[in-house]
Amino acid sequence: MKRKSILIVGSLSDIAKSVANKFAEHNYDLLLTARNLENLKLQANDLKSKYNVNVDYYKLDILNIDDHQKLISNLSVIPDIVLCAVGFMGDQKDSENKQISRSEVIRTNFEGPVHLMSEFANLFEKRESGTIIGISSVAGIRGKKSNYIYGSAKSGLTTFLSGLRNRLYEKNVNVITVLPGTVYTKMTLNLKLPKLISSYPDKIAQDIFNGVKSEKNVVYTLAIWKYIMKIINLIPESIFKKTNL
Length: 245
Ligand SMILES: NC(=O)c1ccc[n+]([C@@H]2O[C@H](COP(=O)([O-])OP(=O)(O)OC[C@H]3O[C@@H](n4cnc5c(N)ncnc54)[C@H](OP(=O)(O)O)[C@@H]3O)[C@@H](O)[C@H]2O)c1
What we know:
Blueprint: E1 5-9, H1 14-25, E2 29-34, H2 37-51, E3 55-59, H3 67-74, E4 81-84, H4 92-97, H5 99-127, E5 130-135, H6 148-168, E6 173-180, E7 182-183, E8 198-199, H7 201-213, E9 218-221, H8 224-234, H9 237-240
Parallel strand pairs: 1-2, 1-4, 2-3, 4-5, 5-6, 6-9, 7-8
Helix pairs in contact: 1-7, 5-6
């Protein structure tokens, strides 16, 4: 029987590395993209030797929108699943003050992923099968002063994924929005994360894998973040604006 395959965009992200291991462990063939070809090659060789699955890799900077079609036509196979892990938090102060920094955050978290996932949406719609997974963030649920440029880009991504899910429902294509809370990765290396409600990439990968298997729409990871965000959403704006959450 033909093995299933997953394309992981931004495969050198700490979360994506765990996702790649998780799906390979379950006998999926892997297609990987990242910006750094050397590290990508090392990652592919490592996964190949560990799991004995097919691993193909492709260099992609998601901000080079013109390369998206080229990537798709070079793929060894149109995958069953596409997961986009690309993200960039940037520095909030830089985002407030420098147009170039702000633009990088918005384009990396929103524009690039939206363009790429839209191309796969069109292919999967025609094929009438597939799963599209976007890693967004709980930061996109309510804007706060510490990271609202990143948060608003993720908010746009979450809305995009919701609309896409609605559009593709009748075409047998599942769209999963992953909403991690705080995760120990290189993105958060310089932040002090709340211990009790923070997690590690392996846990996120397990939750994503379970989400695919049970055809979830939205995966909060850790699950407790669903309730935390419900409470945060209940705070009236007149009070929320005075907080330091
Ligand atoms: N860590 C958290 O607490 C947390 C919470 C909520 C959501 N998330 C989301 O989870 C996803 C994975 O993040 P992570 O925590 O695993 O952090 P990470 O290790 O820093 O991963 C981010 C990845 O995005 C890639 N990337 C950035 N700009 C790119 C571009 N222009 N083209 C292609 N790739 C690009 C980076 O590539 P390089 O390796 O080349 O730098 C990196 O591999 C992100 O979407 C992030 O926003 C993370």
